[in-house]
Amino acid sequence: MTREVHAFVYSALPSRVIFGAGRRADVAAELARLGCARPLIVTTHDQRMLGEALAHPFRDATLFSDATMHTPWDVTQRALHETARARADCVVAIGGGSSIGLSKAIALQTDLPQIVLPTTYAGSEVTPIIGETRDGEKRTQRTPKVLPEVVIYDVELTLSLPLAMSVASGLNAIAHAVEALYAEDRNPITSMMAEDAIASLAKALPNIAHTSDSIDARRLAQYGAWLGGTCLGMVGMGLHHKICHVLGGTFDLPHAQTHAVMLAHVVAYNAAAAPHAMTSIARALHTKDAWSGLHDLAKSLGAPLSLEALGMPEAGIDHALELVMRNAYSNPRAPEARALRIMLERAWKGEPPATAD
Ligand code: NAD
């Protein structure tokens, strides 16, 4: 296989990645390496026990377990108050994108270093991106200030991730890789990582779904998630991420599941405009074409297929379309209101994608 190579700019992001079963035990050594002794440990309410276990060995650790999806501003304010009260000198996040989002929000305001231990496949841990929700609107920015200093991928932390969430989160990671393959600012390294991310996750997710002892599959999924997240951090995303951002922020839909529903639809929409990307995706999936391969994968894994099932009101389609059409963003195919409306209607109803133009 020969990769397409054009002129490109490649800017690597600084990140120390520690990958392996049991490596959460490295937190103490990493804190010492950063010269920190008073960690604020952040997680969600559901993962509080995990946060407590992580905090246990440290005399001066403080636990904050109210991390919430889409990083609401009021939660960040409370966490900042706790950071100041505890005189924390670093943030340690354990959890999915919600916990890591809060860690980034604290780092943005305080410049404290971060050690993060991801437990889903969302990929936020390796991106300089932060989305925050304030007054009902989710705003995203890119700034190196929020890129975590240390990432510890301990596969054992993902074993408890429920199957439905594993599948949706895995498709979320695939979505980062898919859009990296047609990003305007892609480069041969991100394309290489993206294809490997899709292949790894497409192999791992069915094994997670169908085997009881899935540690090997979980390890492969986590590796794919790292690659997908790295792509997200390095190149610009297109229509798919724009739509999911609008739907998540406007209707408070669950992040990973929204990605799972929309991905095959957007790939079908973009198919004719991004032939190289489609070839890579199909090659990684071992399928005839990209969009049907993604649709079949999601369906076979029991992923949610309709926006209605996620709680989006049908009347919201017009508002979503208006927001998607509003701001310019890079995408291989220009946003066409009529085709996008059809796409959103089909996704809302749970119908298979159409390559109609
Ligand atoms: P999440 O972090 O909200 O986790 C979903 C639920 O699963 C939570 O209740 C959590 O406690 C639970 N959970 C997580 N890991 C678990 C495990 N191993 N075992 C059992 N339960 C577990 O979901 P997510 O999809 O990882 O993150 C979504 C958030 O991340 C959104 O706010 C999204 O915008 C953000 N995000 C940001 C970026 C970025 O680069 N800035 C990238 C991806 C996602």
UniProtKB/TrEMBL annotation:
Residue ranges constituting the Fe-containing alcohol dehydrogenase-like C-terminal domain according to the UniProt record: 167-347
Gene3D superfamilies: 3.40.50.1970, Dehydroquinate synthase-like - alpha domain
Cross-referenced InterPro entries: ADH_Fe/GldA, ADH_Fe_C, Alcohol_dehydrogenase_Fe, MAR
A Pfam family the protein falls into: Fe-ADH
Keywords, comma-separated and alphabetical: NAD, Oxidoreductase
Source organism superkingdom: Bacteria
TM regions (residue ranges): none
Residue stretches in coiled coil: none
Stretches assigned to the Alcohol dehydrogenase iron-type/glycerol dehydrogenase GldA domain: 14-154
Family stated for the protein in its record: Belongs to the iron-containing alcohol dehydrogenase family.
Molecular functions (GO terms): alcohol dehydrogenase (NAD+) activity; maleylacetate reductase activity; metal ion binding
Name of the protein this chain belongs to: Iron-containing alcohol dehydrogenase
